[in-house]
Amino acid sequence: QLQLVESGGGLAQPGESLRLSCVGSGVALDYHTMGWFRQAPGKEREGVACISGSGTSTIYEDSVKGRFTISRDNAKNTVYLQMNGLKPEDTAVYYCAARTVGFRLTFQTSDFGSWGQGTQVTVSS
After folding, report:
1. 64 near 41, Cβ under 8 Å?
2. Going by C-beta distance under 8 Å and a sequence separation of 6 or more, which residues neighbour residue 114?
3. 25 contacts 32 by C-beta, under 8 angstroms
4. What is the pLDDT of residue 69?
5. Strand segments (E) across the chain
6. d(CA 124, CA 117)
7. CB-based contacts of 78: which residues, under 8 Å, 6+ apart?
8. Going by C-beta distance under 8 Å and a sequence separation of 6 or more, which residues neighbour residue 123?
9. What region, left, alpha or beta, does residue 64 occupy, with left being phi > 0 and alpha being psi -120 to 50 degrees?
10. What CA–CA distance (Å, rounded) separates 8 from 30?
11. How far is it, in rounded angstroms, from Cα 124 to Cα 41?
12. How many C-beta atoms surround the C-beta of residue 94 within 10 A?
């Protein structure tokens, strides 16, 4: 059974950077499309970035384009989210997720069958 554990969240000031990590266990992530999502208080969970199993294809939500970068190291069974130029509106709980059926890059939460427990990111001065 695939388990995902996120880390790397914390408190950052506007303009600073954080790198989130998501480590998988139980199943190799090589063939899984992976996504990062976030959920702010009172808001729906939204997709932030998604990456193909090989790492050659990515998509980003418009508000993070040019600031966030998703990457993966399949040898380490790990997916990353590098977040630069953080803004207060980036404050949320961030989740990584794995598509367990299908491979298309997407932000549809229903297409992802395995989720981590989330890591809090707070951006405030």
Report:
1. no
2. 2, 3, 4, 97, 98, 100
3. no
4. 98
5. 3-7, 10-12, 18-25, 34-39, 46-51, 58-60, 68-73, 78-83, 92-98, 114-115, 119-123
6. 23
7. 21, 22, 23, 24, 29, 72
8. 11, 12, 13, 14, 16, 86, 87, 88, 89, 90, 91
9. alpha
10. 22
11. 15
12. 23
Joined together, the tokens standing for residue 45 give 């969970």
Task: Give the residue carrying structure tokens 């997407």.
Answer: 106
Asked if pLDDT for residue 102 goes beyond 90, the answer is no
Q: Whole-angstrom Cα distance, residue 28 to residue 95? A: 18
**What proportion of the chain, given as a percentage, has pLDDT over 70?**
100
Pairing relationship of beta strands 78-83 and 18-25 according to DSSP bridges: antiparallel
Q: What is the DSSP letter of 14?
A: T
